[in-house]
Write a structure and sequence with these properties.
Layout: E1 24-28, E2 31-35, E3 54-59, E4 67-85, E5 94-102, E6 112-113, E7 133-134, E8 138-152, E9 164-169, E10 315-316, H1 339-342, E11 361-366, H2 378-392, E12 402-404, E13 410-412, E14 434-439, H3 451-466, E15 475-479, E16 492-496, E17 498-500, H4 501-504, H5 512-516, H6 518-527
Parallel strand pairs: 1-3, 10-15, 11-14, 11-17, 12-14
Antiparallel strand pairs: 1-2, 3-9, 4-7, 4-8, 4-9, 5-6, 5-8, 12-13, 15-16
Helix pairs in contact: 3-6
């Protein structure tokens, strides 16, 4: 663990009850104990026969303060795994490795490292009782046994308190096939090049050396690697959201297997429409009205508001950033698979969403899981991450605003309205200004983002920023709301309006190859038909 980041709870902060899972099972001491729990906010899960997601935990007890091990142990079924500990203010330093047994083949995987880049949000959501520290979750596919070893490293002499393994079964649901990028959104308009913004030809990203994670210097462009194509290839089973074709492009996802199609998901609880501006003392659950005064941010120093959209010299701060003008036409939305379509269990979400005054930037992430997945599995992976973020981390909802898979399909993340400035839990210190887009896969350890995924990131980022009149190829100056390992609280951080997670927080995310593709993604976003202007 690194030194604790002391974050005193805010006065009057509501303490949300945190629980494990609907139908959760706790495994400890060789016994199995059922835990019956329910949610309190949002519609109950009404998937009519679908198996709800469940969480299982295994305590990692032991006498050695520096390490914990777990021999090969049979478990209930799970497909995603991570480790967590009691105090979210403790950032783990060391190594955690797991291996799992395939439920289908009965074979054991190699040892796999868990990554540590999650930090509880700096908002009130991160101060609620029961919020835990945790590793990034790892998708391993259907498994029925686990082995683990955790070792404190660096200056640490002990593993965190209440260390445990968290295993998530994503359950099953009868959702429409997302083959072909089905989802909300209008037909994609004809692509046209903006003057002075030619799009690059598709190619595989070239790995480049990542910038130092401890420096607070301004990020610089790396050599463009794989800008998505202007004229994607089309085929009868290509995604409705066309993406450039590359030789390594995965095939279109197959129809869900019968085990994943047992029930029809209900529509999620309707997002709350903008009515009033957030309170100046606590983040509001209502989106700001267009005519209202801008809101005070959560845990962010007050700064004067910019009078125009972000540029190389602008300074944006949630305490004084106006909502986009009603006269600004919203660009046509790209296709987005809704929460109902991928089977979100809305009963998990206890509290209403919090809204920003404006989205000044988009941070790009990777899920740090696996690249060895079929795109038909994407809904299950996202359901598992939602369950992990709520039941393991103790957050109110999934942290990311959007997901993108390797087939270029875009999925709605955190609830509240894809066209609304929903505050997420993805980039510590900068959640009060930004939206988060996470690409399914690991792009630090050999994975390469497909051209389809890059184009999808460019399009959803261009659209989201365009709703607020923000240029996706510009820079913006944001005030860090917390110490992030890259920036100190109160620092003026000049970032691209499409930045990588590592630009704001000390982490390897979004991985070396995806980070090196960001210059090309920004160029493609500027030329996207979804960009404003």
């Amino acid at each position: 663990m690194s030194p604790r980041r002391a974050r005193a709870p805010r006065a009057g902060t509501a303490r949300r009850t945190v629980w494990l899972a609907t139908g959760a099972v706790v495994l400890a001491g060789g016994g199995v104990t059922a835990v019956a729990v329910t949610g309190s906010f949002g519609d109950a899960d009404t998937r009519d026969g679908g198996r709800p997601a469940t969480a299982h935990v295994l305590s990692l007890d032991g006498k050695d303060p520096k390490q914990r091990t777990l021999p090969r142990t049979d478990t209930q079924m799970f497909s995603l795994v991570g480790v967590s500990w009691e105090d979210s203010a403790d950032a783990f330093e060391g190594t955690a490795q797991i291996r799992t047994r395939s439920a289908d083949a009965g074979t054991w995987s190699d040892w796999r490292d868990l990554e540590f880049g999650i930090q509880a949000p700096e908002s009130a959501e991160g101060d609620t009782s029961g919020v835990r520290g945790a590793s990034e979750p790892l998708w391993v596919g259907p498994s029925d046994a686990v082995e683990a070893r955790v070792l404190a490293g660096g200056e640490e002499t002990a593993v965190p308190k209440a260390l445990r393994i968290d295993m998530i079964d994503p359950g099953t649901t009868d959702f429409e096939s997302v083959k072909g990028g089905k989802g909300q959104g209008a037909t994609k308009p004809e692509r046209s090049k903006s003057p002075g913004k030619p799009a690059a030809e598709p190619s595989e990203p070239v790995a480049s050396t990542a910038p130092s994670e401890s420096t607070g210097s301004e990020p610089t462009d790396q050599a463009p690697s794989a800008a998505p194509s202007e004229t994607p290839a089309e085929s009868s089973d290509a995604p409705a959201e066309p993406a450039p074709s590359v030789s390594e492009e995965p095939t279109a996802p197959a129809e869900p297997a019968p085990s994943e199609t047992s029930a029809e998901p209900s529509e999620p609880a309707p997002s709350q429409e903008p009515t009033v501006a957030p309170s100046t003392s606590e983040p509001s659950s209502e989106p700001p009205a267009e005519s209202s005064a801008p809101a005070e941010p959560t845990a962010s120093p007050s700064e004067p508001a910019p009078s125009t959209g972000p540029t190389d010299t602008s300074t944006a701060d949630p305490s004084g950033t106006p909502a986009p003008s009603e006269s600004t036409p919203a660009p046509t939305a790209p296709a987005i698979v809704s929460r109902a379509e991928w089977g979100a269990d809305e009963s998990l979400v206890q509290d209403p969403p919090t809204y920003l005054s404006k989205v000044d930037a988009v941070f790009v992430h990777h899920t740090a899981g696996t690249n060895d997945y079929d795109c038909s599995e994407s809904p299950a992976i996202i359901r598992a991450i939602l369950t992990y973020h709520v039941k393991t981390n103790g957050w109110n909802d999934v942290g990311y605003n959007f997901f993108v898979d390797k087939c270029g399909t875009v999925f709605e993340g955190r609830a509240g309205g894809v066209d609304k400035p929903v505050q997420g839990a993805h980039t510590y210190g900068f959640n009060g200004y930004s939206s988060g887009v996470s690409v399914l896969g690991d792009y630090e350890n050999g994975g390469t983002p497909t051209a389809a995924a890059q184009q999808a990131v460019a399009d959803i980022s261009a659209w989201k920023l365009g709703l607020h009149g923000v240029d996706p190829e510009a820079k913006v100056t944001l005030t860090a709301a917390a110490d992030t390992g890259v920036w100190k609280k109160g620092d003026k951080a000049t970032l691209y309006t499409i930045s990588g997670h590592r630009d704001g927080y000390a982490t390897l995310c979004p991985g070396r190859t995806l980070y090196s593709a960001l210059p090309a993604i920004r160029t493609a976003a500027g030329a996207s038909p979804y960009a404003a202007g």
